[in-house]
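Predict the 3D structure for this chain.
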Amino acid sequence: MPPLRLTILATVAFLVILAYFYMPISTPGLEPTYPGITHIVLFQWKDSATESAIADATAHMLSLKEKCIHPVRQTPYIRSMTGGRDNSPEGLQNGATHAFVAVFDSPWERDYYVKDDPAHDAFKKSVGDLIEKAIVMDFTPGDFHPPS
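Done. Predicted structure below.
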C-alpha cells in the first residue's frame, strides 16, 4: 500500500476513534435511572398564622422549584415540587396541616438546597414566625438500607 494511502487510512481511523470517545451518548432508554432524592416537609402553623399568610407561604414554597438556581449551571435544579393541605382521616398528623414534596436529581443538589441556596434561605426566614413545627424527611426511593 502506498505511503499516502496508509497515511490517509491511519488519519481516518484516528478520527473515527476520536469521535467515538467524544460523541455524547443520547440513545433514548439508556439514560441513567437514578430515582433522585425525595425531600418531604410537613408544617404545623402557629395559631396566630392567618389563612392569608399561610396561602402566601405555600405559594412561596411551591415557587422554589423555579427560584432555586443551580450555582454552576445557573438553571433551576429542583426536579419536581408539589404540596397540599392534609386530608387524611387517620388523625395521625400530630398537628401538621400542610405537606410538600421536592425531588432532587442528586444528594449534592439536595444538600445545596438545604444548606446554601439563597432562595430557600429567604423562604425559611419569611415563614419563621408562622411555623410552630416542621418535620423533614429525605429518602431515596427503594433504598431501605441503614446509612453507611
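DSSP finds four helices and four strands in the chain.
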